[in-house]
Hints:
2 helices; mainly alpha
Amino acid sequence: xxxxxxxxxxxxxxxxxxxxxxxxxxxxxxxxxxxxxxxxxxxxxxxxxxxxxxxxxxxxxxxxxxxxxxxx
Length: 72
């Protein structure tokens, strides 16, 4: 397990979760899909927009300040 940097206890937990998920899938006892409120959806969309804009702003500011020579 050290080859991939994953501790053995994590693999045991993943296996247990997978087995529990499979039994729920085949028994027809799936949990209902979680619903999200429109307010939470709006917050998530705002965060996505922020995460898309910030790298562009940082890159452009770095070019303008001469920290980097190109847009890379």
